[in-house]
Amino acid sequence: MSGGPTRKIIHVDMDAFFASVEQRDDPALRGRPVAVGHAAARGVVAAASYEARAFGVRSALPSVTALRRCPDLIFVPPRFDVYKAVSRQIHAIFAEFTHLIQPLSLDEAYLDVTENRAGLPTAWATAKAIRARILEETGLTASAGVSYNKFLAKLASDHRKPNGQFAVTPDMGAAWVETLPVSRFHGVGPVTAAKMKRLGIESGADLRAKSRDFLERHFGSSAGWYHAIARGIDDRPVNPNRVRKSSGSETTFDRDLTDPQEIEAGIIRMADDVWAWCEKAQAFGRTVTVKIKFQSFRQITRSRSHSQVVDSRDLLVSASLDLVRSIYPPETGIRLVGVTVSNFDTAARDDPQDLPLFDAATS
């Protein structure tokens, strides 16, 4: 990982972050299956320890399903203030090695260490030093992927989990990608992976074999990305000034709701959560979206873009209520509502303590 203009990128991903913090702070939980969340009938697992994952317990799994899979599962209520504080410690360690840090969530980040502050000669040595500092400072383990671009570094960080690291060098990148299932690729979600399977694309090699025209016909504007990553190509820089594109909040009700007054009370709470972030970040958007999930788990969204930014709490609440009222009377009970603001006029820069608490990719 040295020589020429080749970037040295590290993707650092904490191991089962929320659950590991809980096991660190309560020795009685160590070695036992732990889920961060609530065991209530409508609860959802926020994070799971590796002991729980052995039973198929994962983040976003309904708590009742998690308990069926692992009857001995121990639920611990989340302590987000603690997780944020630990995250700040970790990001301070990153800053000892480079100023080019792009946080993705509380527990993972990209680092460009082409020129690292510690003066270490290789990205491999730098990743080992970062992981050692994290363990020394927080008592927690991290995994790392080392490569010449972000796509490969992120894939690599998952290859030796937990508490390991893996490097994908320029001479092995394209060939290594061909061996992997496309379902592991960043940017290929479950729906896209299923579509690719129907088209005969299950591995990186399958994806590489498809022409650019084929990919454009079936995947539109995403074709260029799929064509590039199938060849191990990703020119995106590590961007420490990555802007936040939206701010949202959602809640699952204790029971399915049909009463408009109760539904709207939930909408108002979510709008207040979103407005608190917008006001703090001084980021105001033009588009308001309301998410509704019904008793049947069918999910819909209703959005409206405004000619002017939504720059007050009252305007956000009013817009959100107008949107949810457009689905009255609800076809069935509502189990979840959410409110999101996007299309920012002046997008705020992410700060590690303000990053999303949950990420699509869990460590």
TrEMBL record:
Pfam families: IMS, IMS_C, IMS_HHH. PROSITE patterns: UMUC (PS50173). The keyword Cytoplasm applies. It is found in: Cytoplasm. The active site is at 108. Its cofactor is Mg(2+). Binds 2 magnesium ions per subunit. Mg(2+) binds at residues 13, 107. Residues 9-189 form the UmuC domain. Its EC number is 2.7.7.7. InterPro entries: DNA/RNA_pol_sf, DNA_pol_Y-fam_lit_finger_sf, DNA_pol_Y-fam_little_finger, DNA_polymerase-Y, DNApol_IV, PolY_HhH_motif, Rev_trsase/Diguanyl_cyclase, UmuC. It catalyses: DNA(n) + a 2'-deoxyribonucleoside 5'-triphosphate = DNA(n+1) + diphosphate. Monomer. HAMAP family: DNApol_IV (MF_01113). PANTHER family: DNA POLYMERASE KAPPA, DNA REPAIR POLYMERASE UMUC / TRANSFERASE FAMILY MEMBER. Poorly processive, error-prone DNA polymerase involved in untargeted mutagenesis. Copies undamaged DNA at stalled replication forks, which arise in vivo from mismatched or misaligned primer ends. These misaligned primers can be extended by PolIV. Exhibits no 3'-5' exonuclease (proofreading) activity. May be involved in translesional synthesis, in conjunction with the beta clamp from PolIII. This is DNA polymerase IV. It comes from Sphingomonas olei. The lineage of its organism: Bacteria, Pseudomonadati, Pseudomonadota, Alphaproteobacteria, Sphingomonadales.
